[in-house]
Design brief:
The structure holds two protein chains of two kinds.
Chain A: H1 2-9, H2 28-36, E1 47-54, E2 64-66, H3 69-79, E3 89-92, E4 102-105, H4 109-116, E5 120-127, H5 135-140, H6 152-161, H7 172-180, E6 191-193, E7 209-210, H8 230-241, H9 247-272, H10 285-298, H11 300-303, E8 307-314, H12 323-347, E9 354-360, E10 364-368, E11 373-375, E12 379-384, E13 392-394, E14 407-408, E15 412-413, E16 417-418, H13 419-430, H14 434-440
Chain B: H1 8-18, H2 57-67, H3 73-79, H4 84-93, H5 99-105, H6 113-124, H7 128-138, H8 153-165, H9 171-180, H10 182-187, H11 207-215, H12 243-252, E1 256-257, E2 277-278, E3 288-289, E4 295-296, H13 302-314, H14 319-331, H15 338-349, H16 359-368, H17 370-378, E5 385-386, H18 389-399, H19 415-419, H20 442-445, H21 458-472, H22 492-497, H23 501-513, H24 519-531, H25 538-550, E6 557-558
Antiparallel strand pairs in B: 1-2, 3-4, 5-6
Classes of the chains: A alpha/beta, B mainly alpha.
Amino acid sequence: MNNNQRRRFLKLGAKTMTGAGLALGANPMLTLAQAADTNFADGADYRALVCVYLEGGSDGFSLLVPTGNAEYNEYAHSRQELAVGRDQLLNLDTVSGNFDSLGFSKHAEPLYNLYQDQRLALIANVGNLIVPTTRGQYEDKSVPLPAQLFSHADQEIQWQQLQGRGRGEHGWGAAAAEHLSSYQERDYLTSVTLDGSNYWQSGAGQRPFALKETGLLEFAGLDKSNEWEQPRAEAFRRVMEMQQSHMFSSAYADVQNRALRITEELGAVLESNGPIITEQPAENSLAAQLGMVAQLIAARGQLGMRRQIFYVRMKGFDVHDHQNKKQPWLYKELANALTYFQSTLDEIGESDNVTTFTASDFGRSLTGNGDGTDHGWGNHLMVMGGAVKGGDVYGTMPRMGVDGPDAIQNGRVVPTLASTQYAATLLKWMGLPDDQLHQVLPTLSNFQQPNLGFLA
Amino acid sequence: MIRKTIILLPILTLLLAACSGGNGSSDSPAATQAPAIAPALPASEVNNAAPDSPMSEKEAFRLLEQTSFGVRLNDIKAISGNGPELWLSEQMALPATFLTDGLNKAKNDRWNEYINVWWRHAVNADDQLRQRVAFALSQIFVISSANGLGEEQAGLAHYYDTLLRHSFGNYRELIGEITLSPVMGEYLSMKGNHKPDAELNLRPDENYARELLQLFSIGLSMLNDDGTTINDPDGVPLPTYDQDIVEGFAHVFTGWHFANAEHFRWPKNKDFIDPMVAWPDMHDTGEKTLLNGFTIPAGQSAEKDLNDALDNIANHPNVGPFIVKQLITKLVTSNPSAEYVSDVVQVFNSNADGERGNLGSTIKAIFMHTEARDGHLKNPDTFGKTKEPLLRITQLWRAFEPTDGIHPDFNYAWVSDELQQAPLGSPSVFNFFTPDFSQPGRIRDNGFVSPEFEILDESSMISLTSRLLANSLWSHNYKVVGDGNRIAINIDREMKLEDNRDALLDHLDLLLLGGRMSSDLRQEVSSLMDSRDYNNAASQRIAEAIFLIMSSPEAAIQL
């Protein structure tokens, strides 16, 4: 009922690109963009990172499960009725042969196929760490620990910033973007978010450009080329250009001016591109966000982009209750969205140039509360793309006993790999030189292995 | 210092009595309960109070902008010439306009109709100060229709009414009611939380325990009374608690469920109105270690454990600075001085009656403090706050209030799709934006925060601007009549001034910007009006002027 009204209002609103079948034709903006970007002809190198943020702390321990008898029993004993049953697990072989008995959740089966195809890798037991940390060191408090462990907001911000124990000034995405933006014409498109502001892409002078999953919005009633609207549209633009002494008014005008400029410039470029054919899963917000990312990547030649970072987000992973009901759906939705995105990248021929990775506040506790799990620490994550050395699991599987050598505080798992190592591997692939890598990730030198090797 | 410890049981009894016979249906009797009475204490109880001297029209505008959902000309005329305290006292004495009553009266039974009722009340209710404070509280004590509670409109409205009732009440009573609210019980999964079972590796659910500490009371970091953090030698703030303490509180909050639950595990009956009730067998009766080394002895009842734990929290020294600073940033300024926070915290900690946590005294202190009244003169480029998107919309509707009211079919319940904000519609318990969000650029470089900018990105800005345009240019009473899709703003008053450009612009300047309009903006507005120079275009000229002013960066802030 509301949808119709909403759509009616947003005819000012969304230009939905997918399947819109917009006519190609002589477009002055496009010609201009192409002329300016002769350096970026087809074949010029392009690389993009896509961060799929799983909000609330995803339960990696329901995705990747040890299936050896002793290990599975330990897991099942800890997880009790929240343990994923053996009949729900697909057998996982590894290219390296480092693991013999692992299972992958059936609910994420489409991703299993990508894994078998060696375009998806699993990274075991990653989490925020300042230095390598053991259970004993945690309990003795003999090493520096991330501040406010187990708190959503803090662990999310630390994950997205990786600037040490507490809150820093900028995200690692923003710091990297500062180096990467010199590659291209349109700096403001180096960082793009499909979920509004975030810490990963903010700071160091950077702020992501925000697009909606429904597409690029248009200002209502402010079209300069419309004779009736023109006087208003021009007055509105002049008001936005006025010097503002108040810092909030000034920042407000900055965002408006970016919005004005981008709807005009990006809108023209995107409209000139043909639709993506791969069918988008319905009722899947993450897929819709990723579909927009694919549209932008498809236009990277016209836009003169060579390095980009994208941020998308999926909600609902904080399963304190109804975990057995919610978790399968979460993985289904995630798997459908990710495989759809990989197919669109295949369609536009960008598979090798785009690496998609998951991140989350933390993993979840091994012990349950009767109906769900609580905030943990280490987590299993995924990396996907043509450049990924897939079909393998990187790192080590933790022991799953509640009182085992890897667990603290009633079944929260101490990570064996640091988020900063994971980030470094991704940024290295993006082409960040070592000195810049260490500037962007100040705690990286605390770890022996700065490159986890999952990217070619 | 005298601390009044409020005991929860009498409140519970009162609530249960008031709700007896209630079965969670939409006609909740609790909504007719009298709200907490505002204290008759003088504002001078706050240090550095502003003199209660007669306000100019511009000063009246500022007070109204801070204490309502939008400034009306009649209110400016009515309160200018008086001191600010009279308005505050009068507002606090007004009866509360409850969401439940509005929902019961609503003609429609639509998805998220409570949001339409909220619009109605924000625009029309007389008790503006209470409505504005409750809206601020709803962004601290967050529950949301966005995560599974969307069908429970009566429960959501009842929760909002709890905030309205306690807006000028006592903090300890407020968290007592919130803790046992079935809507909160569902949202942060405290309902059905049961005692540990070592054999099954089951621990109590930590969700409510953690967020109560982190978001509703003391925050993560040790605070001075002026709101600044106490740091370790690395410059990292000292934590207020550790995981063991979270687990202690998680054990306290075991053994509660919906008032009419027939089983403890996954009951069919779900009463989203009445307070949750204790199931003694499901409550952990072991010893629990809480904040500051306080220990709850073994063997206590669920009720006694809960009361002791909430007292333990409410008496933590962080509560004052943590809650006061958030209220100031949601009502007055994003970057209050340490002195401002500290002066108001003293009132929170102990008002003139020696009561701790009196929100009425605290609210009065927030608005009567010199910094609230004069901060913009001292720091004209940094004082104040960015207006929340919802307030940009209500401001327009209140400034040009439709004479015939709002059509009963009016529907703008999907506002969060456009503006990333809706009453009780936060995407998570962390609210629409966090108190310490700082926009990269000049704001962040100078160490300031700008919380509202977290939801002001290119997309939401385009939607907000388009909505302001649609609501002014396309929806005034010389063009349309109000109906289910729109509120027609009333511009009769402006039409009378239309032949006198200076008088009209002076009027709009006062009404929309409190007399702060820059000469450049005034010039642009006037030129745009000139461009609509054909016959019978007076209403068009006025609507163009209103849009250009309302969408300007000058109108985006509350100074």
